[in-house]
Prior knowledge:
- By secondary structure, the chain is α/β, with parallel strands linked by helices.
- It has helices spanning 14-23, 40-43, 46-56, 75-93, 96-102, 130-133, 135-153, 170-179, 191-196, 202-207, 238-247, 259-271; strands at 3-6, 28-32, 59-63, 109-114, 120-122, 127-129, 158-163, 185-190, 212-217, 219-221, 226-229, 251-254.
- It has an 8-stranded parallel beta barrel, surrounded by 5 helices. The chain has a two-stranded antiparallel ribbon with strand order 5-6.
- The longest helix has 19 residues, at 75-93.
Amino acid sequence: xxxxxxxxxxxxxxxxxxxxxxxxxxxxxxxxxxxxxxxxxxxxxxxxxxxxxxxxxxxxxxxxxxxxxxxxxxxxxxxxxxxxxxxxxxxxxxxxxxxxxxxxxxxxxxxxxxxxxxxxxxxxxxxxxxxxxxxxxxxxxxxxxxxxxxxxxxxxxxxxxxxxxxxxxxxxxxxxxxxxxxxxxxxxxxxxxxxxxxxxxxxxxxxxxxxxxxxxxxxxxxxxxxxxxxxxxxxxxxxxxxxxxxxxxxxxxxxxxxxxxxxxxxxxxxxxxxx
Length: 275
């Protein structure tokens, strides 16, 4: 199995992240575009990224900005996010050679994305999600997004993988199923997020398990709701989740938030013969 790490806030540079990745014997780093040092302008410096990875014999995956909202009603905003995705795909294409050398060529290079819930309006007795209210407009945006991503990715071995966070809304499930009709889209299962919200996304994920190719692995609990814990510090049946990842030939990011938790998680895998 291929295990990697997220970009960690304690590490101030790519060099520090790569050194940690090497020290822990991990295969890849998921570059997170929420960080200023991994914005498009940096991802497009492919020669620098490739040279750094070549020296360490690792590769990269990419995590899109969590604010990405391709269905925003303001076309200036949505078009900017679409252009972000286009340029991210172009950057990812140049990183495939690293995956070929140091990863598993049967696993597509992944670009991870969250679903943006949009805004809601609070009424005296309920909250109304604007994307649910204007579902046709919402789906039109996803139709455009799907067509563009299929065109931009083309024959490249890249998939955009959609991650669960705090529970998919019903309108999001419909748009995700629509995206999954195209081979350039797949699913990420974040098992910590899933646990912290009472596993409410599990039925949907399992209904679409044939599209599951990427995992964010960290421990978690339901009461109180916690995630991003080191492996072994929560309530998740980790061997069961990792067995499914193995069956799906899925790549796994050990998505803790601290170096100490990542170190503990790697040790947990070693002791329990799960690496």
